[in-house]
Amino acid sequence: MFFIYLALAYYDFYYSDGSILEQVLFTLPLPSQRTVEFTVGNFLLALGLILLFFEIFKSTYTNTSAVIEHVLSALVFIVYVLFFFYSSLCDSPVFFILTLMTLLDVLTGIIIGIAAARRDVGLNN
Fold first, then answer.
1. pTM of the full predicted structure?
2. Which residues pair with 37 in a beta bridge?
């Protein structure tokens, strides 16, 4: 569910200036006398990974709100896919990777949710 906020941030960055995803936020000097440049797009991907961690953590709960959360996550994934295929604003590798993260959120939510429910009920092989 957190990924809907990430999509809104992506749209906000893109509408403000389309090239802002490539804008350098900061550079990190390395011991090899090189520097690594981190862009706004890299920041969105890193934020997406952090949000994916929390989404996976939330999927371990087996209450009624978790089921609603899984349904909403699936809807968010569908919205991401539709935007990726049909919106000219979302045809970037950054948005594609964010779409893959939403797919992972849906799949892990279902798989972990089923495993947790089996554990709670006491079904063993």
1. 0.81
2. 27
The pLDDT of residue 67: 81
Q: Which domain holds residue 10?
A: 3-17+40-121
Number of domains within the chain: 1
Contact 112, 59 (CB under 8 A): yes
Structural tokens at position 52: 């994916």
Q: Residue 2's CB: how many other CB atoms inside 10 A? A: 17
Q: What is the pLDDT of residues 58-94, one digit of tens each?
A: 877 777 777 888 889 999 999 999 999 998 888 888 8
> Has residue 32 been placed in a domain?
no
In a domain, 49, yes or no: yes
